Structure formats: C-alpha cells, structure tokens
Amino acid sequence: MRSFEGRSGRRKLWVRTLAVFGVLAVFCALHPDLTRALIDGNTDQIIQELRSEPGIRTVVFLCVLQVLQVFTIVFPGMPVHIASGILLGPAAGFAVCYFSFLAANAAVFLRLRCAGGTPEPALPDGAMKNEKVRSIVRRLTDTSNGMVRIVMVSILPFFPNGIIPYYAASTKMRGRDFMAGVAIGSPFPIISDCLAGHLFVNGHPVLAILICAMLFGAAALIGFNQEKITALLQKNCSNNRI
C-alpha cells in the first residue's frame, strides 16, 4: 500500500513538474525576444521589452524570468535583478525577485528529493577547470554545516546560483536547512543588484558602483575565508549547546 502511495505521489509530482515546464516553454515561445535577452544577460533588452507592459504583467514576467534563471541553472540572475530595480524600484524589485527565487529553489529541491535525488549536474563548459569553482562545489556538497555553506555560496555573485538546489538535493542535507540557507544568503546579491540598478538610472552611478564593489568585496572575503568562518560558526554553535 505504501509503495503504491509513494508511486502515486511521485507521479503527481512529475505531472506538476511537467505542467510548470510546459508553462515556461509556452512563455519562452510567446516571448522569444525577452527569453533571448535573459539568455544573453542583456539588462537593457529586458527593460526595453518590459517597459511598455502594464504593472502587473511586468511583475509576472519578472517572476517568470527569475524562475527560469533557477530552473535552467546557467542563465544569469543579475540582469533580472537590475531590471527589477529599475522597473519596479529597489523594494518592490527585491520582493519580486527574492520570493520568486525562493519558490523556484524550493520547487527544484522538492522535485529532485522526492524523485530520489539526482546525479550532480554539470556546470557550464570550462567552469570546472577553475579551481575556485571546484572548491566551491566541493564545499556545497559537504553536508557538515550545510546551512552555513548554502548561505555563503548564495552570497557569491559570480557563482551560478541556479545550480545550488540541484547539488543540495543530491546530498543528505535536510530541506529546511537548505531553504534557510538560501533565504538568509540570497537577499544580499539580490538587493544590491536592485538598488544598484535603481541608483544608476536615477543619476547616482558612483553609488551604484560602490554598492556592487562592496558586494564583490564581501563575497571575495567570504570566499577566501570560508573554512575559517565555518569553523568559527561551528565552534560557537558547540559552545551554545554546552
């Protein structure tokens, strides 16, 4: 009986997954220029395609673009965040991107976890030749202090964050730890991108550049000291238990 219920649950999950992918495929077919702008990471083209749309359609389209970015792994997220900040303002743009990003990560993780996990997906061509990227991937798949590692990887602006739920689902990391890590780490690059875009178009390019520089500086600091930070947090957690 349990086996039948398990198969039935997985079948329903796959039906829902196919439905979501079907909707995304229809969206891409109906809006090829917008999809191409996302693939190319062309912020100006994304803004041009959406500027003439009514407010609610702009929100919906940006949500879909953010979900596509996570589902496809390799599409860049920064152009979507910057466009959201310009079109909706930093607060509304952040809210749209952040909650869409969380929902997409949860959907990918849940689908793969319910399907029994997945082999580790391949990074874009040549990415794994970079020692830093390989190091990040090794740390990502290390289940010790999983939530802390997800937080730190989510902050990195140069890492394809769409790959995080795929790798996390292939480990024994708990779902709540994964989602907590994404929820804590992802706001930093999203809000900085949205705010930078808003400031840039409103005549404050120096502030926009400073914000981006601060994010990259913080990401570099975390990247180079990730093991030390993890060890320190682990030590503090151990002391709190005592």
What attributes characterize this protein structure?
mainly alpha, single chain
Fold and architecture overview:
This protein has 242 residues and is mainly α. The chain has helices at 2-30, 32-40, 43-51, 55-72, 78-88, 90-114, 131-140, 146-155, 164-169, 175-185, 187-201, 205-224, 226-241. It has one domain (31-241). The protein is built from 13 helices and no strands.
Measured by DSSP, the beta-strand proportion falls in under 5%
Number of strands: 0
Task: Briefly note the structural class of the backbone.
Answer: mainly alpha
Mean of all residue-level pLDDT scores: 76
| Biggest sheet character | none
Helix-residue proportion: over 70%
Uncertain runs are none
The number of domains: 1
Shape: flat
Helix-strand pattern, N to C?
Answer: HHHHHHHHHHHHH
Distance from first to last alpha carbon: 44 Å
Rg (C-alpha, Å): 19 Å
Count of alpha/pi helices: 13
Give a topology summary.
Elements: H1 2-30, H2 32-40, H3 43-51, H4 55-72, H5 78-88, H6 90-114, H7 131-140, H8 146-155, H9 164-169, H10 175-185, H11 187-201, H12 205-224, H13 226-241
Helix pairs in contact: 2-3, 3-5, 4-5, 4-6, 5-6, 5-11, 6-10, 6-11, 8-10, 11-12
